[in-house]
Design goal:
The protein has about 325 residues and is an alpha/beta fold. It has two domains: about 5-190, HUPs (Rossmann fold), CATH 3.40.50.620; about 210-330, 3-Layer(aba) Sandwich (Rossmann fold), CATH 3.40.50.1220. The protein is built from nine helices and 17 strands. The strands form four sheets. The protein has a seven-stranded parallel beta sheet with strand order 7-11-6-1-4-5-12, sandwiched between helices. A five-stranded parallel beta sheet has the order 14-13-15-16-17. The chain has a three-stranded antiparallel beta sheet with strand order 8-9-10. Helix 3 (about 80-90) packs across helix 4 (about 105-115) and helix 5 packs parallel to helix 9. It binds flavin-adenine dinucleotide. Flavin-adenine dinucleotide (FAD) binds next to helix 6, helix 7, strand 16 and helix 9.
Length: about 325
């Protein structure tokens, strides 16, 4: 594909709303556009029902939104999304294509890069433009123990952005943009695999990814019963409970609680880590928290290097006193 202009974001839906990850990708795209002297940002969204998502895309930073509405897209089959993204890239002819490192993105983006005859920068935490207008990304490697900086040598450069690594822009309803129907013929033959059933695990309280306060526990809690005071603490301060991988691997909590490189990325104002050593793979999921508070009996634990406040001690002694104090303060 010849050298293009601008940035194309491959959008995702949450129901019939624009997904938060797509608003984050649009925010990243606007920064890149700024570095490229204001090149246009376009968005492609596809689904059986788009609701108000195209307009939300403009409010979130897109100049042009390409839409595809088709019953073929019911359930968002990746095969159909690949076809849509490829067509959108042909029409928009972008310099960069950005998607999100989600379940869908992990399936779709490598295939889109292949079809465009280019390479993919996976799992990007930051995206920048260098002096030669190449897309430069940072991404965790070796299980999060190191950060690699990669420059995309081909265009269009395709990148998968890690959720929660960029703040979305405040929606601006006064932004002006164009909504265009993408010229593509989709039929069922494009879809080779479909999700036939979904089981939703009921979740209590605030979603981990959206919580302003996260109280996370590690192997140091000794067992699932150790999470009871953590749940009390979280509900007292309106937070969500998280966990290290050691906890989820041991089956003390489901993997949906896992924070880290292979778990969820959280960006709360306050992250309280109890009995967590602070391995790099765990920190990859929480180091963007505004403040980290650690409770650990080992003064040499890595978590204290990252924490703004720390208590060296046995959580069984520290936590009840902490919760009592909070009760008093909140009365
Ligand atoms: C490819 C790869 C991906 C990974 N992805 C993730 C990931 O997404 N998320 C993740 O969390 N990990 C991940 N890991 C695992 C990671 O390397 C660590 O093994 C894990 O985070 C350790 O969990 P932990 O801190 O709970 O347990 P431990 O390392 O066992 O630490 C327990 C801590 O509790 C403290 N402690 C013990 N008793 C008490 C007490 N009574 N009071 C106070 N403190 C106490 C100890 O001093 C210790 O610091 C990954 C590893 C690999 C190789």
């Amino acid at each position: 594909m010849a050298d293009g202009q601008g940035i194309l974001v491959i959008g995702e839906l949450a129901g019939s709303e624009l997904a938060l990850v797509t608003r984050e990708a649009l925010s990243a795209a606007r920064s890149l556009s700024g570095a490229l002297g204001g090149e246009p940002v376009s968005l492609v969204i596809a689904g059986a029902d788009l609701g108000d998502a195209p307009q939300q895309g403009i409010s979130a930073g897109a100049d042009t939104v390409y839409t595809v509405v088709s019953p073929v897209l019911e359930g968002t089959p990746p095969d159909a999304v690949v076809a849509v993204a490829e067509r959108a890239a042909q029409v928009a002819s972008p310099r960069y294509v950005i998607g999100s490192k989600t379940l869908l993105g992990r399936d779709v983006l490598p295939r889109v890069a292949f079809r465009l005859g280019t390479a993919l920068a996976q799992d990007c935490a930051t995206l920048e433009v260098d002096s030669q207008q190449r897309l430069v990304a940072t991404r965790p490697v070796y299980g999060g123990s190191a950060i690699a900086k990669v420059a995309c040598l081909q265009t269009p450069a395709v990148a998968a952005l890690r959720p929660k690594s960029v703040e979305p822009l405040e929606p601006d309803a006064s932004r002006i943009g164009e909504i265009k129907t993408l010229d593509i013929q989709l039929d069922d033959s494009v879809v080779k695999a479909r999700v036939v059933d979904r089981t939703e695990r009921p979740s209590e309280g605030i979603r981990l990814e959206d919580a302003k306060v996260v109280v996370s526990g590690g192997r140091g809690l000794g067992g699932p019963e150790g999470f009871e005071p953590l749940k009390d603490l979280a509900s007292l301060i309106g937070g969500a409970v998280g966990a290290s991988r050691a906890v989820c691997d041991a089956g003390w909590l489901p993997s949906s609680y896992q924070v880290g490189l292979t778990g969820k990325t959280v960006t709360p104002d306050l992250y309280i880590a109890v009995g967590i050593s602070g391995a790099s793979q765990h920190m990859a999921g929480c180091s963007s928290a505004r403040a980290i508070v650690a409770i650990n009996k080992d003064a040499g634990a890595n978590i204290f290097k990252e924490a703004r406040f720390g208590v060296v001690g046995d959580w069984q002694k520290v936590l009840p006193a902490f919760i009592d104090q909070l009760h008093e303060l909140l009365q």
